[in-house]
Amino acid sequence: METLIQDTTQCGVPFLVTQMVEYLEVFGLEHVGIFRISGSVNKIKELKQKYNQGEQVDLVNDGDVDSVASLLKLFLKELPVAVFPDNICSGRNSNLKQLLSCLPKAHQNLFQFLSAFLLKVATYSAVNFMTLENLAIVFGPALFK
């Protein structure tokens, strides 16, 4: 995560995450099944390859909601160290605020950014069917590997 910080936005979150979230805020909040319906495998591979090679990615023209949502989940799952690493989470009986304070700053920034976005997604749950509970089921395994 720390190596990705070299390419971050002002909020300390990797650029690719902010780009995907901004896209999803515009095009995905009212999309039924956002984060539950898998995107096109080929589209996800293509977008991932562009990001990995440092190419400019135009999500508006090259992406779709399901593929971008799937790529965001994939990014979190493939982080070498989870947002909440095992050494921070294991053996602790503490509340979330205490856990957050133990995280490296890059992890704190990402978690806070994603939390704000996922709360926004949940406010559209009457349309997209993604309640906080559903979002926790989808994102929990990626955040707490």
UniProtKB/TrEMBL annotation:
SMART domains cross-referenced by the UniProt entry: RhoGAP
A Gene Ontology BP annotation from the UniProt entry: signal transduction
Keywords: GTPase activation
Organism: Bubo bubo (Eurasian eagle-owl)
Name of the protein described by the UniProt record: Rho-GAP domain-containing protein
Gene3D superfamilies (UniProt xref): Rho GTPase activation protein
Endoplasmic reticulum listed as a keyword: no
CC per GO annotation: cytoplasm
Residues in Rho-GAP domain copies: 1-145
MF annotations from Gene Ontology: GTPase activator activity
